[in-house]
Design goal:
With 337 residues, the protein is α/β, with parallel strands linked by helices. The chain folds into two domains: 5-105 and 300-334, Nucleotidyltransferase, domain 5, CATH 3.30.420.40; 114-162 and 211-298, ATPase, nucleotide binding domain (Nucleotidyltransferase, domain 5, 2-Layer Sandwich), CATH 3.30.420. Helices cover 46% and strands 19% of the residues. The protein has a five-stranded mixed beta sheet with strand order 3-2-1-4-5, with helices on both faces. The protein has a five-stranded mixed beta sheet with strand order 8-7-6-9-10, with helices on both faces. β1 (5-11) and β2 form a beta hairpin. The chain is globular and about 75 Å long. This is ATPase BadF/BadG/BcrA/BcrD type domain-containing protein. It comes from Christensenella tenuis.
């Protein structure tokens, strides 16, 4: 009988990690790939189909295996936000000969990687902001991540847009003064407030400035004590708490002793100011009581969650500490940035 394997994929908007393990959780191979999100590929879904075919061909050929040897695979991918997207991408994967697999948003991987139980909530706050939850019976829920049709609560793009809005209120509408104005003028290279919007629109159009790259200014201004920036981040934290509460309610998690929330993304892990996190913690404590919600920054690669999930699906005990550490260590040792 041919040897069997599992595949785990963390398909991001910028880069992707794909791992191949045997069914005993031992590391076999890994691929560093570009984006596997149709939202970030110029050719959309059609280009994604081509990228997936190239990725699978590379993985299979260099390991001398066939698709029928993949016992289980989990593909966590940015841009899988709707049933249509999930079904469309699942169809692409099936065309490559894989039969037993799961396709989901990449946010779910954080729950499997960051919690032993595999039950809880993930908040991703990077370029965009999305929320995922997995209940005790395996039921799944996702909200956010659809900035194309609605504003995300956080995320670099929305924060950057709001910096421009707050500066416009300060300089043009005689609103509350904020150091964000001076910071934005310096970033854009505008000589005066009258020139700011013209310069900004031109440079955004030329792609020499991206709105999402303005976001760190909000955290830096808050770190320096700017009241407008701190007020924005505090409000953002309270709004994020509303989404956490919605998932707790929908997935009936409230009876658990603790509810684990895994934090992913630069706005959580690299921010110069933590006002939004403090606000989030205070609001969830107000709603659920002290110690009910436990926030855990993700300390391993999300692809570890994909591999553990695939292994769990075939009956391996991923709650076993020694086995879990073996799987994670094997992946972390071999993958480099």
């Amino acid at each position: 009988m041919a040897k069997e394997y599992i595949i785990g994929l963390d398909g991001g908007g910028t880069k992707s990690d794909c791992v191949l393990l045997d069914t005993d959780g031992r590391f076999v191979d890994q691929l560093k790939w570009g984006t596997t999100s149709h939202e970030f590929l110029p050719g959309g879904m059609a280009e994604l189909a081509c990228e997936l075919k190239k990725m699978f061909t590379t993985l299979f050929e260099r390991n001398g295996i066939e698709p029928r040897q993949i016992r289980r695979a989990v593909f966590g991918m940015a841009g899988v936000d709707t049933k249509y997207q999930k079904q469309k991408i699942a169809g692409m994967i099936a065309l490559n000969g894989l039969k037993n697999f799961r396709v989901c948003n990449d946010g779910y991987l954080g729950i499997k990687a960051g919690t032993v139980s595999g039950v809880g909530i993930t908040i991703i706050n990077g370029t965009g902001c999305s929320f995922t939850g997995i209940g005790e019976s395996g039921e799944m829920m996702q909200v956010g991540g659809q900035a194309v049709v609605m504003d995300d609560i956080g995320g670099g793009y929305i924060i950057g847009r709001n910096i421009v809005r707050l500066v416009h209120r300060d300089l043009i509408l005689n609103g509350k003064s904020t150091m964000l104005s001076e910071m934005l003028m310096k970033k854009v290279g505008a000589a005066s407030s009258d020139d700011l919007m013209d310069e900004l629109v031109q440079k955004v159009g030329e792609n020499t400035i991206q709105i999402k790259h303005l976001a760190p200014m909000m955290f830096e201004a808050a770190h320096q004590g700017d009241e407008v920036a701190k007020g924005y981040l505090a409000k953002m934290g309270r709004q994020i708490a509303e989404y956490v509460a919605a998932i707790v309610r929908k997935l009936a998690l409230v009876h658990r002793d603790v509810i684990e929330v895994v934090l992913i993304g630069s706005a959580f892990l690299k921010a110069a100011d933590k006002t939004h996190i403090e606000s989030l913690e205070a609001e969830t404590e107000r709603r659920f009581g002290h110690g009910k919600i436990i926030f855990r920054p993700l300390t391993v690669r999300p692809v570890c969650g994909a591999a553990l999930w695939a292994l769990s699906d075939i009956g391996r005990d991923t709650a076993n500490k020694e086995f879990r550490e073996q799987v994670i260590s094997g992946i972390e040792t071999h993958i480099t940035n």
